[in-house]
Amino acid sequence: MARKIGSRYTAHQILGRGSAGTVWLGTGPEGDVAVKLLREDLASDQDLVERFVQERSALLCLDHPRVVGVRDLVVDGNDLALVMDLVRGTDLRTRLEHERRLAPEAAVAIAADVAEALAAAHAAGIVHRDVKPENVLLDALAPTGPGGAPPALLTDFGVAKLIDSPRRTRATSIIGTPDYLAPEIVEGLPPRASVDIYALATVLYELLAGFTPFGGGHPGAVLRRHVTETVAPLPGIPDELWQLIHQCLAKAPASRLRAAEMAARLQELLPSLSGLPPLDIDEHSEAAYAEEAEAEPAATTPAPLQEGVGAVPLVHSGAGPDSNRDTHTSMRVPGADELAGGAHGTARTPRATGEPRAGSARNQRGHQEAARRRRLKLGAAAVGVGVVVAVGGWLATSDSETGSLPAPGARYTTGP
Ligand SMILES: Nc1ncnc2c1ncn2[C@@H]1O[C@H](COP(=O)(O)OP(=O)(O)OP(=O)(O)O)[C@@H](O)[C@H]1O
């Protein structure tokens, strides 16, 4: 069923749904387009509409072959829409669900494309803030590159920032996707370009391993791991590739590579990865390396939390856009020792040696799990971008990580 979007565009068919809205295949004066129609509650948010208009020129100016271009922003009655280049293909999450792990060459080729997109954005002063496989589109019509990887394009530029209005996310809140959130965001610092590098390194790790380095279990536990845990090398990973990932996952933002440098280093690595099969991460080695990672002390001591700013939302069930969503009444900001896994702050249930972490992404297997993630993702999308998670409750009361498992790509707002 076709519907008009503004005076210039017609939306014909739904391509997919995300937490911020629905993406349609559409047509406009210049041919086929993708139209992201934002959710009604976002579209009726006056503050967001103003920001939408203010950001218009910044979003429209980002023109790069690795970026899904935003062609137009439409504000029309109740409709708020981003008109984008149409990419015919799939997103990287879908590909990962089919293949579980990518061969290093293909994974690195895709990551190099995304790093190039980020380099262009950062040079223009734009931080993406939501780099994850869902936001990487694979162009099925273009010739494939190294390792048979289709060219990758980064999408959803500026959307996190648009949605992240001061009213929606205050100082005590975090917006983003837990698995890919840089530790400095968890600590309440403003997002800079280096958060995108951290997220991209997380994506690259996930493409190689089949799971994210710090994911699994309650979102609060995921946030804490970003700050306190280090990762051990993936079994069989070429050393130089591991060094690069490790550097880009550094807790200290300044230690990470810049996007252009990351892109160049990834490109340089490609010839040495030619023909390598996907990493062979079996049950045993996966559990063993997870043990090793947890036994290692964090490379960097987490910075002390600023007063009133931190990982833990002051969540309440009061009025506001999220008032009908999952909320929690615990209102406590953690101390640095708690974030570091202190006696009252830990979400970890003691495990026997060799026993995989309950609910860990490291303990998730195969297509069944991927399908479950997709279902959960759809569930998360249904309740929208403003799902409020009770991280405070986790810190205050939980002794288990086995709470409901969110989709790795679900975006959360934690906060009032
Ligand atoms: N420019 C585009 N061309 C073709 N398909 C697109 C385009 N943008 C998005 N899609 C498809 O639409 C679907 C929804 O995209 P959307 O960006 O709304 O959500 P998401 O990124 O998956 O999740 P979230 O919004 O929660 O981050 C995706 O599956 C994606 O494949």
TrEMBL record:
<keyword id="KW-1133">Transmembrane helix</keyword>
<feature type="domain" description="Protein kinase">
    <location>
        <begin position="9"/>
        <end position="270"/>
    </location>
</feature>
<keyword id="KW-0812">Transmembrane</keyword>
<dbReference type="InterPro" id="IPR011009">
    <property type="entry name" value="Kinase-like_dom_sf"/>
</dbReference>
<protein>
    <recommendedName>
        <fullName>non-specific serine/threonine protein kinase</fullName>
        <ecNumber>2.7.11.1</ecNumber>
    </recommendedName>
</protein>
<dbReference type="InterPro" id="IPR008271">
    <property type="entry name" value="Ser/Thr_kinase_AS"/>
</dbReference>
<keyword id="KW-0067">ATP-binding</keyword>
<keyword id="KW-0418">Kinase</keyword>
<keyword id="KW-0547">Nucleotide-binding</keyword>
<feature type="transmembrane region" description="Helical">
    <location>
        <begin position="378"/>
        <end position="396"/>
    </location>
</feature>
<feature type="region of interest" description="Disordered">
    <location>
        <begin position="312"/>
        <end position="371"/>
    </location>
</feature>
<dbReference type="Pfam" id="PF00069">
    <property type="entry name" value="Pkinase"/>
</dbReference>
<feature type="region of interest" description="Disordered">
    <location>
        <begin position="397"/>
        <end position="416"/>
    </location>
</feature>
<dbReference type="GO" id="GO:0016301">
    <property type="term" value="F:kinase activity"/>
</dbReference>
<keyword id="KW-0472">Membrane</keyword>
<keyword id="KW-0723">Serine/threonine-protein kinase</keyword>
<keyword id="KW-0808">Transferase</keyword>
<dbReference type="InterPro" id="IPR000719">
    <property type="entry name" value="Prot_kinase_dom"/>
</dbReference>
